[in-house]
Specification:
Length: 241
């Protein structure tokens, strides 16, 4: 008897990249377990499409522990973990630097570290059944160059890149572990024309990467049988502009 498809765990499915990935996988018949911090209208359609959604504020240790217990109980096998949840706090005079740094590290490195270790068994069980298993970190272009206005954010994304290297070595050959480092994926609705023009000028291709391109990169890593421990740039040639 053929086994049912193992689910993909995606963190941060309420909007943008996470929401798009979740809908795409569900449309392909792949079960999705998604996490969100704040309830959004977009989640209703995701639930109707069949996603299993879990509230999880990464700053609350109890939320993360509950998520781990739930996934372990409901999914003895996992097809993949996609670490998409993100926050983007700048350094500001009204926020203590320690608060900013600890939150950025917790969201982008601390919780992914915990989830990868805690759910390792479900990924390895998938691999032992002869099926592919992956971890994908959604990183950021700034992890390799820093940021004047988002120092802690950039540092935490660099830490996430290092998790990719370490977990790739730890979980080989059963589980592939990679990262995608995008620059501009999608503008926000509130971004004005001046900001858009300035941002587009930073890359050779002078356009948004877009959600379809992010899906393409994720699919490439999931489909690959020989890529692990890599940080895949998705920056429109920004390094040459």
């Amino acid at each position: 008897m053929k086994q049912s498809a193992a689910p993909i765990l995606i963190t941060g499915v309420g909007r943008r990249v996470g929401l798009h990935l979740a809908h795409q996988f569900l449309a392909r018949g792949i079960p999705v377990i998604g996490t969100f911090r704040s309830r959004r209208d977009s989640l209703e359609a995701l639930e109707q499409a069949g996603a299993r959604l879990e509230t999880c504020d990464f700053e609350r240790a109890g939320d993360v522990e509950r998520l781990i217990d739930t996934v372990r109980g409901d999914a003895p096998r996992l097809r993949a973990i996609i670490h998409n949840a993100s926050d983007w706090l700048p350094e500001r005079d009204d926020t203590p630097p320690r608060t900013v740094f600890e939150r950025m590290m917790r969201v982008h490195a601390g919780v992914p570290y915990e989830l990868n270790l805690a759910l390792r068994g479900a990924l390895e069980t998938q691999a032992e059944a002869g099926e592919p298993a992956d971890i994908i970190h959604i990183g950021d272009y700034v992890s390799g160059r820093g940021s004047r206005k988002h120092i802690a954010y950039a540092a935490s994304k660099a830490a996430q890149d290092n998790l990719t290297l370490s977990f790739a070595a730890l979980l080989a050959p059963k589980v592939k572990v990679n990262s995608i480092a995008p620059a501009l994926v999608l503008f926000n609705e509130q971004d004005d024309e001046a900001y858009r023009e300035k941002t587009l000028a930073k890359s050779l291709l002078r356009r948004e990467g877009g959600l379809a391109e992010m899906q393409h990169q994720v699919d490439y890593l999931l489909d690959s049988t020989y890529v692990t421990g890599r940080i895949i740039a998705m920056d429109g040639g920004r390094h040459l502009a």
